[in-house]
Amino acid sequence: MRDSSKAGAVDWLYVAPALLVMGVVSLLPIFETFRLAGEYHRLAVDTRFWPVMRTTLSLTVVTVALELLLGLVMALVLWSPFAGRGLVRAAVLIPWALPTAVMAMAWRWIFNADYGVMGDLLFRAGLTASPQVAWLADASSAYWAIVLADVWKTTPFMAVLLMSGLAAIPGELYEAAAIDGAGPVRRFFMVTLPLLRPTIAVAVVFRAISAFGLFDLVYVLTGGGPGGRTQTLSVYIYDVVFRYQELAYGCALTVAMAGVLVLLAAALLSLTRREEPR
Amino acid sequence: GRSEPADGKVRVRYLASPDVGGFSKVIIERFEKANPGIKVEMIEGPSSGDARENMYSTAFMAEDDAYDLAYVDVAWLPKFAAQGWLRPLDDLLPPATAALFLPGDMEGSRYQGKTYRLPIQSDGGMLYYRKDLLAAKGIPVPSTWAQLVAAAKATQSKEVAGFVFQGKQYEGLVCAFLEVVWGFGGDLLSADGEVLVDRPEAVAALTALVDAIYKDKVVPQAVLTYQEEEARNAFQEGRAVFMRNWPYAWNLMQKEGSPVRGKVGIVPMVSAPGGRPAATLGGWGFALSAYSRHPREAYKLAEFFASEESQKLAFLQGGILPTRRSLYSHPEVLRAAPHMKDLGRVLAAARPRPVHPRWPRMSDALQMHVSAALSRQETPEEALKAAATEIRAAAAR
Amino acid sequence: MAEVRVEEIRKSFGGNRPVLDGVSFTVADGEFVSLLGPSGCGKTTLLRVIAGLEHADSGRLSIGAREVSRVEPKDRDVAFVFQNYALYPHLSVAENVAMGLTLRGTPAAEVARRTADAAKRLGLEGLLERRPAALSGGQRQRVALARALVREPQVFLLDEPLSNLDAVLRERTRGELKLLFKKAKGTVVYVTHDQVEAMTMSDRVVLMNEGKLQQVGAPEEIYRRPASVYVATFLGAPPMNVIPAAQARACGLFGAVPDGTLAGVRPEEVKVGSGRPASVVLVEPVGSHTVLTLDADGAALRAVVPGSWAGGSTCKVEVPPASVHRFDAATGLRLP
Amino acid sequence: MAEVRVEEIRKSFGGNRPVLDGVSFTVADGEFVSLLGPSGCGKTTLLRVIAGLEHADSGRLSIGAREVSRVEPKDRDVAFVFQNYALYPHLSVAENVAMGLTLRGTPAAEVARRTADAAKRLGLEGLLERRPAALSGGQRQRVALARALVREPQVFLLDEPLSNLDAVLRERTRGELKLLFKKAKGTVVYVTHDQVEAMTMSDRVVLMNEGKLQQVGAPEEIYRRPASVYVATFLGAPPMNVIPAAQARACGLFGAVPDGTLAGVRPEEVKVGSGRPASVVLVEPVGSHTVLTLDADGAALRAVVPGSWAGGSTCKVEVPPASVHRFDAATGLRLP
Amino acid sequence: MRPTPLGRVFFGLAVAFVTAWSLAPFLWQVVTSLKPAAEVAAVPVRYWPSTLDFGSYAQIFKARPFATYMWNSLLVGLGTTALTTGLAAAAAYAFSRLGLPGGRWALLAILGLSLFPGTILIVPLKQLATRAGLLNSLTGLVIAYTALNLPFAIWVLKSFFDRLPKDVEEAAWLDGLSRWQTLWRIVLPLSAPAVATTAILVFIFSWNEFLIAQTLVSRDAARTVPVGIAMLSGVTVYEVPWGQIAAAVVVTTLPVVVMVLAFQRRIVEGLTAGAVKG
Ligand SMILES: Nc1ncnc2c1ncn2[C@@H]1O[C@H](COP(=O)(O)OP(=O)(O)OP(=O)(O)O)[C@@H](O)[C@H]1O
Ligand SMILES: Nc1ncnc2c1ncn2[C@@H]1O[C@H](COP(=O)(O)OP(=O)(O)OP(=O)(O)O)[C@@H](O)[C@H]1O
Ligand SMILES: [Mg+2]
Ligand SMILES: [Mg+2]
Q1: Which of C142, C269, D167, E137 reaches 20 to 30 Å from D296, CA-CA?
Q2: Contact C307 D269 (CB under 8 A)
Q3: C96 pocket-lining for ligand 1 (C-beta < 6 Å)
Q4: Given a cut of 80, is residue D287 above it in pLDDT?
Q5: Per the CB < 8 Å rule, is D234 touching C167?
Q6: DSSP assigned state of C334
Q7: Residue range A14-31: mean pLDDT, rounded
Q8: What residues contact C1, with CB distance under 8 A and at least 6 apart?
């Protein structure tokens, strides 16, 4: 309703406090990162950079996709009214509420090759030959263990965000759709999904960013192994900066990571955001 | 910067793991009583060593004088020293005193000829074995790799694995691997920094490890996920005949209710005919922060902790292995813990990991490729060749 | 066969007075029934019950031969023009209109043809690519209407579908609707506040108040023989003059009016120009005619005269005996 | 002093035809002006520009003595009834209505009094504690209206405020509005599609089409002397008969009609009963009167007769010369 | 639109699945926390302890001032939540409604701030906090967490604001509400689902944050729960005091559950129902 040309300087006051806090806390370190970054040429010859980047990207895509699917299901379930919904909502948020590092240890326990419940349960269900399965010893099962633990942990984040999006969908549209002959499934695809699009965009972008930065879980669960197959970029950056003390290169890696994320975020935003009418 | 308090006392600060037995507090109390001008602030950090290393790094990178002393793992030392974060102790520590400590611990406290650390707690890898199971089969305690494999084969069963060690991709794997390499007469770096990782001795060592899993089948594949505790649990629950681990496991296995209580023996890690048994040195000690404004007072505290009296207290109350040789034959100690004699033998043979400022990167390369070999993603030759390439690249930089 | 049979429907929201209080009527197959009633009397609720968007607390409802109380809205085959439109904000006008067809598997060409046709009939041609947010109120209402009209359902439910259209467009649209309903042979329940609309379009009119039926009948009948004072005064603009017995007798215009009754006459049936004298209290010109408020010996009467009023402040007035309606003062019901 | 002066206002959304295309008029202090025009002609947009909710691309706007183009909406002291109500969904009806008062620091007692008063006038008494979602369409509209009426702003802007009310309530509300505006001495711009409303309530009428003014004048004037064919046919229900010269001459009802002109006559001014013969094509009874569609020698004419039609399929018809309007066929403009 | 019996069954199953999926690993922790030490790593897996042992719970409060940690976490959590939501709401409102020139770029820039992994921030952050005298202070944590959460909060709230009917706000202006009042009295109440969601997620973030808390705080008086949990240790370095950690996690999850229970009520549909026609 107001042309951008008319917005006064006063309007920036709404944004100023937030910008100030972010500027002081986040911007300085970021400048610092750029200032310290160097040895970019090493990116090209670093034999670990590309495998790590590949793992990170693939983990990001796989986990976020699964979370979105599961999160949607959860959001829809938690959205419908039923007795005890509040409690179930709280229960569902518990994975997100548990400290990551601790829960990562719990998962290590669960996937433990000797006394892990995962193997035991699957064995009891007749799905494995022995209760002792060394999940984390095998590159691909370790990868999927990380996916499972991460999806488990972060799906609630998706789910609550999507729920807030569901709240913005006027109920009358479902009525209109029902009159138009749409059953529950069709209603989901023609009303819920499109109108959820902006929320999905935000949720997916922020989830992708943090999935890309996946650290604790890998660090604790597999340490990047076996054979470096589950190492992620931020574990690597952590190593480079804090353990190898190669600050310049670590910052360069960070810049590269931010660069990839910019592309990823741009792709996601353009994929998921069509111009929204009000 | 930090402000000095008004009581006129000099503050000495350091970060350590939580003071579980409470003995650190006792020692500090004693110290403060003896040195009324000094106030010690022990900051209890997270119990994870990685986390504390990170906290120290963060503070030092910010050139912060938050800590006067750094309670450092032997593995951190080269890096910390190379960054110039630590102040050499050579002017404070007379050689005669240094000689009273376990040689490995002192060696691990040096970097490029200078001493940076006063060892407080010793640690080293060793082979635990089930006395009862070996005795039942009449098998003697193995001292070579072949004997170990044979003994494991002979004693293992469906429920009881032959041999377990730390096989997850992390620093512990390198420690375990290193012991085998040393046992096979090889090494990772020569004294003058030459990379020996892809030498035949090392390849033979790794091949032996891989074969132990897949050919001899005396090692369960699960060791690829093992850290110290997984291995100890397996062994303590009676699910393994041999185990490579640190001394800490001993006390736990001798606890009331432990299934293997009184059935465990310790020996140095086995070696190949041409090699000599060795233990990878672990252990902790006090280093002096280069940013400290009270190095003398701080060193005083370190010295106090390193004293025989304090170390005895720490051992008796907290199971902290002393770094002073004398304590391994101290009657009071032996009365409380007869196995200290065996331990003394092991630790006397303990060697530090290669001392190199880029050791963490080298170690990571090793971890990754050794892990890759153990999970058969690479052959031992490939793995060590690749690791050697990376290590050389790191060393050359 | 798509007769709509509403039987003893009751519905309340929360503890209050019921919103629908035992409503029963039948709309024959292909019949056009208007639903009239004051604001808040339950018209929308009734339509929603018929569409299945709201569940009646009790009562039976059938569409065609089928009891539909347990049938999903999507399977009732009704088209609904919502009073508040309920357009899909993320779809273009064309997509909004076409949705009901595409969802039912109509071939694309057919969908396009019918969408274009409906858009033309409702003057939406230039707007097909717009989103609802970029439309004016009346345009949105037409989209809502078009969405119902493209389909050929058994029953059309229209909730004040023309309220935001200008007179010309409304008239044109009414014509289109009539044509269309005739062609589609759909049964129609039509809520409107426009009495002309109700009168000219419907086969029958259902008049409600406070959740209860007041009268059901042909428009002429309801207008000519209102069943109660309520109906009499609700219909007609200006509404019927209803005069208590004493005043009616005093003014002498209504013949014999026994105590306990009311006399009524529609303003347009009051004859101005001959008869007994009256004073003109208020003159309201309304374009084609003028509404006079008269005082005939204490009885306040409104009369409609064609054209504008040039008769000054007094006039003569007469009520033809055939135009007099009589009601019971206590019950408000019509006396034969 | 709250004259509203609109000068050369232009506004377009995106690249299309402008929605407002140089609109200028002045509403005097305390004047009641109705804004008429077909759906989508820009009425709402114009009100929004006056309220400051939309910025004109060019033009000037003043309220009272003040140029307000750069004045924030909240400082323009206008009350606005939104076409789509725009109620506060999280507040009760009472809070919705009171919001404008409490914010301006009116004492609580006064707020309560005025809220109750407005609610009573609009028949919302029982609903004060409800949320908008639990109201019927007409009830919501009345809340939107009440919200504007409790205040005493300089200018009232009302966008089809009665469109969803039944006839009785509408009439009653109109009366209340008139009273209130007289008392509040507010200047009023009133959008409506109900011509009776526009005719009876306004001091002047502004008629728009496609973003341009068509005619501004007193209701009588606009009705009696429409400035163009467009105005003539837009107003009046049924609209004016406009006959091309050739047919007009052929039927002989309009006197001399030169080529290139159009002759017009309002249906209610067509005299049925005397004059030239015509055939009755269609009879539409609408309660108080009946609309006939006639064919007089090829000229299609509509005529309004009071009561119902009993005249059969032919009749006589006459057009009084004074009732004939003449327009230029090319421009559509009125000929003197 | 009543659910069919079959639909009900499906829905019931979905609720059960979602609940089980979310709770199972957590319940495993609960069970673990109640096991006597010997059974924690028993082979075969013990699903129920032979005796319920509450020792771990007693131990954590004895070993560490957990009550203080929780109190600190609560203060930091509530402080961060309030500050973040407040600042983000103002900023999001400006971005959504006030047509700031360059607003879209500013938004993207804000998103850009969240692309850098937390690990890289901590060194500069520590320097910053040292200079500002905010080491060992809850205020310091609140500021840091606020800065880190603002991008996310702003995006979530903005995308919700974008979908509120503008007319209602316009009506508010004409009623004489300033923009600020409009935000406060109209926009925020109508955005309750998004605000509640943001609050929940931000609270949980600060409840769980470890790295920064550990970097900026070295005194028990200002330590938060995750740092406290990390300080739980066995008798030896290698020993993971699993029972205690599990107990700590269980204990510290309760406040989050309470918080979620309180806030989730606000995540409901139909807040804008009845506001506008069409
Ligand atoms: N956001 C928009 N973008 C593009 N066109 C718009 C937008 N809003 C309105 N219009 C167009 O502007 C024109 C005028 O709209 P406006 O709402 O002023 O009409 P109106 O006269 O109030 O009509 P109605 O009587 O139907 O309410 C319409 O044709 C409409 O389609
Ligand atoms: N959700 C609700 N809760 C409580 N009362 C409601 C609810 N919805 C509607 N009502 C009430 O039910 C009555 C009937 O509403 P309905 O919408 O059917 O009226 P209507 O006849 O369509 O009126 P209008 O002509 O004003 O649209 C009204 O008095 C309204 O206040
Ligand atoms: Mg209604
Ligand atoms: Mg409009």
Answers
A1: C269
A2: yes
A3: no
A4: no
A5: yes
A6: B
A7: 89
A8: C29, C64, C65
The answer to whether the beta carbons of residues D97 and D88 sit under 8 Å apart is no
ipTM of the complex: 0.90
The whole-angstrom distance between residue B320's C-alpha and the CA centroid of its chain comes to: 12
Nearest Cα neighbor of D103 from D153, D138, D161, D165 is D153
Answer yes or no: are the C-beta atoms of A191 and A177 closer than 8 Å: yes
Q: Which atom of ligand 2 lies nearest, measured to the CA of C47?
A: 18
Residue bearing the CA closest to ligand 2, atom 11: D135
d(CA B183, CA B179): 6
d(CA A144, CA A129): 19
Give the number of the ligand closest to the Cα of residue D169.
Answer: 2
CA–centroid distance, residue D136 to ligand 3 (Å): 5
Mutate to test the interface with D, among A1, A275, A278 (most CBs of D within 10 A): A1
A271 part of contact set with chain E, CB < 8 Å: no
Nearest to C230 by CA among C220, C219, C240, C244: C240
- CA-based nearest residue to D295, from D277, D307, D308: D277
Looking at the DSSP assignment, which residues form a beta bridge with residue B10?
B38
A176 with C82: Cβ contact below 8 A: yes
What are the φ/ψ torsions at residue A175 (nearest 5 degrees)? -65, -45
**What confidence score (pLDDT) does residue A99 get?**
84
C-alpha–C-alpha distance, residues C124 and C117, integer Å: 10
Look at residue D229 and tell me whether its pLDDT is greater than 90: yes
DSSP-derived secondary structure for B305-369: HHSHHHHHHHHHHH-PPPSBGGGGG-HHHHHH-TTHHHHHHHHHTEEPPP--TTHHHHHHHHHHH
- What radius of gyration do chain A's Cα atoms show? 22
Chain B residues closer than 8 Å to A247 by CB: 61
Ligand closest to Cα of D49 equals 1
| Mean pLDDT of the B73-87 span | 91
CB D138 within 8 A of CB C40: yes
Q: How far is the centre of ligand 1, averaged over its atoms, from the C-alpha of D19 (Å)?
A: 7
Task: State both tokens at D334.
Answer: 């009125």
Residue C121 predicted with pLDDT over 70: yes
Residues with CB under 5 A from ligand 3 (ion): C 44, 83; D 136-137
Helix axes D137-149, D167-184, angle to 10 degrees: 10
Q: What is the 3-state secondary structure (H, E, C) of chain D?
A: CCCEEEEEEEECCCCCCCCEEEEEEEECCCCEEEEECCCCCCHHHHHHHHHCCCCCCEEEEEECCEECCCCCHHHCCEEEEECCECCCCCCCHHHHHHHHHHCCCCCHHHHHHHHHHHHHHCCCHHHCCCCHHHCCHHHHHHHHHHHHHCCCCCEEEEECCCCCCCHHHHHHHHHHHHHHHHHHCCEEEEECCCHHHHHHHCCEEEEEECCEEEEEECHHHHHHCCCEHHHHHHCCCCCCEEEEHHHHHHHCCCCCCCCCEEEEECHHHCEEEEEEEEEEEEEEEECCEEEEEEEECCEEEEEEEECCCCCCCEEEEECCHHHCEEEECCCCEECC
Give the model's pLDDT for residue A138. 86
| Per-residue model confidence (pLDDT) at position A1 | 41
Q: What is the pLDDT of residue E1?
A: 54
Per-residue pLDDT tens for C156-166?
999 999 999 99
Confidence bin at A272 (pLDDT 50/70/90): low
**CA-wise closest residue to D177 among D210, D196, D202:** D202
Take residue E271 and report the two structure tokens written for it. Answer: 């807040």
> Any CB–CB contact under 8 A between B248 and chain E?
yes
- Residue C309: predicted pLDDT: 85
- The mean predicted confidence, pLDDT, of chain E is 87
Residue of D39, D44, D80 best suited for mutating to test ligand 1, as the one with most atoms within 8 Å of CB = D44
Residues facing residue C188 across a β-bridge:
C32, C156
